[in-house]
């Protein structure tokens, strides 16, 4: 797919999507890739059943957030909608509570496109525009950037329905070729940069904040800490040494899994500076918890939710802060946070040609 072809399609997609306001009082949570099944052993969300119900019902609903489900919510390529609703009636009850408040929006992804052919309990959208001071945050699933799903969507549904289900294959990895996933991300990055917008998507199951992958972010954090170390006070040096050790261990773990090649800057941008125009919510089917994006008081955050004893040890060190949800074993880790006005200022200042 030529980028010019994708860009023209993407631009029309953006312009045709409904608009929602985004001001200082707005609270949005963007959660994608639940891959809800029939509650059995082949249901990718089942291990996080209690966690997803808890965070939606006890945190985001009670705090007045608007819930945007970013696609691939039901896995209709492997399960029937009837079986899904029967197994997850309590979760749909929480969705209903958001909807009653006018605080619920549902996007479609490649795994639940079949909803468009069915009678849905909720309005369905391909994309949503959140508009803040004339600037746009564009929410969509992300499969729209994949040539395979654009051209062979029906074929892929048949493949998964008749092969993946009998073989009990999981969806933790969207594609067997991760380079194709990152090429889709790069198309979104280039189009967002050209339009001067922020894109919020899912699909790849890989959290991104300001276009940075986890690996990129860890490497940048290590570099900044090493630069600070020589002039730091003794107490701070001890803390820096602890953090560098934690981040280094996590980078080495990713290297062992052969994830080190997937560097955002080398894939997205030939220039030295990366533009902070793409954010990805990750997924709700993680082995160690759930990631999501939050927008509140003009700030955007990447949050990770985990049950006690399930999160990776480095998260407590890396997180800007953590919040325990009283009466439950759920903990929310705020991993990254940025002021949206500052994000758009950086897009403007870094996005043009250098003088």
Task: Summarize this structure as a short list of keywords or feature phrases.
alpha/beta; Purple Acid Phosphatase, chain A, domain 2; five-stranded mixed beta sheet
Which secondary structure elements does this structure contain, and how are they paired or packed?
Layout: H1 3-16, E1 19-21, E2 27-31, H2 49-60, E3 66-70, H3 81-87, H4 89-100, E4 104-107, E5 124-125, E6 127-132, E7 135-140, H5 147-167, H6 178-195, E8 198-201, H7 214-228, H8 234-256, H9 264-268, E9 278-280, E10 290-296, E11 299-307, H10 313-318, E12 321-324, E13 330-339, H11 340-351
Parallel strand pairs: 1-6, 2-3, 3-4, 4-5, 7-8, 8-9
Antiparallel strand pairs: 2-10, 6-7, 10-11, 11-13, 12-13
Outline:
With 355 residues, the chain is α/β, with parallel strands linked by helices.
Percent of residues in beta strands: 15-25%
Low-confidence region ranges: 171-176
Tell me the span between the first and last alpha carbons. Answer: 32 Å
Query: What is the SS-derived class?
Result: alpha/beta
The CATH superfamily name of the largest domain is Metallo-dependent phosphatases
Largest sheet, in brief, is: 8 strands, mixed
> How many domains make up the coordinates?
2
H-E order: HEEHEHHEEEEHHEHHHEEEHEEH
- Proportion in helices: 40-55%
Q: Oligomeric status of the shown chains?
A: single chain
Summed up, the helix count is 11
Query: C-alpha Rg, in Å?
Result: 20 Å
In the sheet with the most strands, the strands line up as 5-4-3-2-10-11-13-12
From the 3D structure, determine the CATH topology of the largest domain: Purple Acid Phosphatase, chain A, domain 2
What's the overall geometry? globular
